[in-house]
């Protein structure tokens, strides 16, 4: 690629028994980029591999900056490495300074975030968005790699940039999410910092964000209340958040101690979110101690089932509707084009059509006459070759006269 800081996508080869959890262990250069299929190959593969129930689950980890996405990705990766099969891990954070897990695909091998900033004169967030945009242009290669390895993995784990809006509200974030969801069972894991959410107003802001992502992506959703003190060593008991979701009065009670201007709004919002809470899969976890990762994966399994039974059917329905709308649009464009033609163009078109058709008819008539003539020749051997030639000449002359009069 010609753009600054962008190179061909690499799939770092993680050793099968790779020691997940070792800081800086990400191999960077063992590329199998030669194996990267072209976009045609990848779409062929995708078509060929239609059975979604056998495909690995893609987990997209999203969450506010500092909520613990990277730490949780590292812990889940480490957990799955022990359980086997090893997950396929993708880092989509171009500004990540140190990656504490071994990644199969690292965006930093493809796009040099600092070069992009320099080349385009961007600040840090602009640099991240542009890097992600550049990466998205090669995403079909990544899908091709995933297609090839889908039999070897049960999970594909995706870490996203620190600033959540960079991924959730950018075009490239949407393209990446939709491309994954179109090809694989995909689940959003929304990582929430349970320490920072003890304040009901902050909790509500976080929940509204989670809700907006759910409605934007429409993908099955799991909330991981991170930094939860399930084992005595972590920070805060996250059960307060689960209680607030279950019990509106408990949330109302906590809200009473707040006297900010946002209290009334928060109160109203909690009523609105009641429906969202009722179907929400949620668990406290600790990315540091590893507590309740099994529960998290249980909920992910449940979300995967939702993808297969509900999302997929809806996706196919929407795709069919979109294809139909596209066909309708093309038809309307064609009709508009015909209507826009100048009257003389239209007449010319009609006239030439008539000429062609009448010429075709003359040809057809001639053919028919010749056939009949031949049949008659066969039937009646007495008819001379000369008279046949004469008739033929007459027909030719008649045709020339007709053509001349029309032109
Ligand atoms: N106590 C505790 N700290 C955690 C936990 N998970 C993450 N942290 C800490 O929270 C801080 C942020 O963690 P990261 O994993 O970098 O969070 P992130 O969401 O990936 O952050 P960015 O991508 O940089 O926005 C780090 O100091 C972690 O050590 C947890 O479960 N318990």
TrEMBL record:
EC numbers for this chain: 3.6.5.-
Record region (Disordered): 1-50, 323-407
Assigned keywords, A-Z: Coiled coil, Cytoplasm, GTP-binding, Hydrolase, Nucleotide-binding, Nucleus
Biased composition (Polar residues): 34-46
Enzyme class at the top of the EC tree: hydrolase
Entry function: Small GTPase required for proper nuclear import of RNA polymerase II (RNAPII). May act at an RNAP assembly step prior to nuclear import.
Subunit organization: Binds to RNA polymerase II.
Name recorded for this polypeptide: GPN-loop GTPase
Gene assigned in the entry: GPN1_1
